[in-house]
Amino acid sequence: MDKPRSVHWETALRILKYIKTSPGKGLLFKRHGHVKIEAYFDADYAGSKDDRKSTSGYCTYVGENLVNWRSKKQTTVARSSAEAEYRAMAHTTSEILWLKNLLKELGLMYDDPVPMHCDNQAAIHIASNPVFHERTKHIEVGCHFIREAILSQKICTPFTPSSEQRAYRIKAV
């Protein structure tokens, strides 16, 4: 930080007091030979009976350890299940890129593409197809964002059947 202020100092002291008073608390991570990052995401289509907005959910694993999850109602009404899944894919991509940057700052380089498991073939096709159509125009910004991450091999989008989808229950929380 370039010019810390008193609010920064107070926050740092608060964190140190918390650490001092809770030495027995923490997270236990299982150690594995190779650090592998995986993400699962899912969305329901028009799940809200009030406004027909979809709910997205994702979870991120480092090894076998769940490190990040979220469930959130989408801000706009999706016109198809593929669009709802694609919006969830864009949010998950953003989180994966953040996690990779965090690991990089901690000195843990992770150059492998992170598999983002998807159970919607249409969303996977939109992500890998460089041609835009009239039906995908309204999600074009998300398309470019995800496609850029795929082309730079930061993520990949393997198909995962719904029965193996770990994020299925996250969106219900």
From TrEMBL:
InterPro entries reported for this sequence: DNA/RNA_pol_sf
Name of this protein: Mitochondrial protein
Organism of provenance: Sesamum calycinum
CDD domains according to UniProt: RNase_HI_RT_Ty1
